[in-house]
UniProtKB/TrEMBL annotation:
The lineage of its organism: Bacteria, Bacillati, Actinomycetota, Actinomycetes, Micromonosporales. It comes from the Bacteria. It comes from Actinoplanes octamycinicus. Transmembrane segments: none annotated. Keywords: Kinase, Transferase. Belongs to the ROK (NagC/XylR) family. GO terms for molecular function: kinase activity. This is Putative NBD/HSP70 family sugar kinase.
Length: 398
């Protein structure tokens, strides 16, 4: 009678073995043998290489079954650090993280992404240097840098492509900007992809299909499909803010920042709410001003918020019908007006989507609030740095 092979099989290399340690508090040699199906000599070889590169370190003794206790080993999360910057339209959060992707220290500051890549990346790097200095670390200990931005990203090249609100960023070489400052990989992604991963890993680890909607200055979405971030063929997946909709009470289709007319964002994005409130004689300048006014119960502001909820709900309903997520998380500044916004979203989703797609669907507000992008970006970067195919090079680097 044959026994089933381990999921990793005897072909498990250094990268696969390191993944085991990254996902668990500690393991013994016997644990690795059982999980991989590798022989004792091969496990010793793999473990010696990881110990030699200080990616794995001893963590104490294991339980004894009558004899010498087995030595235990753990992933060396403090072997180096990661730096991440979650860049929004008007603000930026930066953080220093350990190699598991856990945020150790963070900062926040106001920026204008339309100032261009030079000033914004310089501001991020200035905060990186301060975080490193305060932690007693130097640039040589940085294993990777993660940047997310509020625009479409070609993930393979790390370049922003035709962003509606990011003047001067089109095709800019963000990884190249950091290359002369840090000798490490640089990952660049769309902000809402990072937000999606942050929420899923932190609160919904067993959910394999999830939609994250950012309703802030603009409107966008990130998708988790099969437990992984889904970017589409070219990194453009989830751009629901530029789905065109017909709104019955609209006399003319508003012009969107992308240049088209009638987009979801042109009706329901934060910048559109500011536009419409100002047209109604309200003294608002920013999206935060609009949110504050809506929360006071101002009749005009509440009416526009509920209308925005229905329009965003239209786009979410299309997404629910297409990918059948288990959870839809709403984040961004407009998620803070949950009472006014969510009623319209739920109304449209349950009206327009099939009962099978909505029978177990949860539509919830973000639980990480404005930290979801930062948390998700750190995890995304850690996964990328320690992807199995990269570990051989890390071991060689020592």
């Amino acid at each position: 009678m044959s026994t089933s092979a381990s999921p990793l099989t005897a072909a498990a290399g250094l990268g696969e073995v390191l993944q085991l340690f990254r996902g668990r508090p500690s393991l013994t040699r016997a644990d690795v043998m059982q999980l991989t199906g590798l022989s004792r000599s091969t496990v010793n070889q793999r473990l010696d290489a990881l110990l030699g590169a200080a990616l794995v370190v001893p963590s104490g003794e294991g339980s004894s079954t009558g004899g010498r206790p087995a030595s235990r080993f753990t992933f060396h999360r403090d072997r180096g650090v990661l730096l991440v910057a979650d860049i929004g339209a008007t603000g930026m959060r930066t953080a220093l993280c350990d190699l598991r992707g856990e945020v150790l220290a963070e900062r926040e500051r106001t920026i204008d992404v339309a100032d261009g890549p030079g000033p914004v990346l310089s501001a991020a790097d200035s905060q990186f240097r301060e975080l490193l200095s305060e932690a007693g670390r130097d640039a040589g200990e940085v294993f990777g840098i993660g940047i997310d931005v509020p625009g479409p990203v070609d993930f393979d090249s790390g370049q922003v492509v035709s962003p509606p609100i990011m003047s001067g960023w089109d095709r800019y070489d963000i990884p190249g900007w950091f290359a002369g400052r840090y000798a490490c990989p640089v990952l660049v992604d769309k902000d809402v992809n990072a937000m999606a991963l942050g929420e899923q890993r932190t609160f919904y680890p067993d959910v394999r299909q999830m939609l994250m909607v950012k309703a802030g200055t603009g409107v966008g979405a990130g998708m988790i499909l099969g437990g992984e971030v889904y970017r589409g063929a070219d990194g453009a997946a989830g751009d629901i803010g530029h789905i065109q909709v017909t709104v019955e009470d609209a006399e003319v289709e508003p012009v969107c920042r992308c240049g088209n007319t009638g987009c979801v964002e042109a009706y329901a994005g934060g910048w559109a709410l500011v536009r419409d409130l100002r047209a109604a004689g309200k003294e608002v300048t920013t999206v935060d001003d609009a949110v504050a006014l809506i929360r006071t119960g101002d009749v005009t502001a509440v009416r526009l918020a509920r209308r925005a909820g229905r329009i965003i709900g239209h786009a979410i309903a299309d997404s629910v019908s297409l990918v059948n997520p288990r959870v839809v998380v709403i984040g961004g500044q407009l998620a803070r007006i949950e009472e006014q916004l969510f009623a319209g979203i739920r109304e449209m989703v349950y009206r327009r989507s099939l009962p099978l797609a909505t029978r177990s669907l949860q539509i919830v507000a973000t639980r990480l609030d404005n930290r979801s992008g930062l948390v998700g970006l750190a995890l995304l970067l850690a996964d990328g740095i320690f992807a199995p195919e990269r570990v051989e090079a890390l071991v060689a680097r020592g």
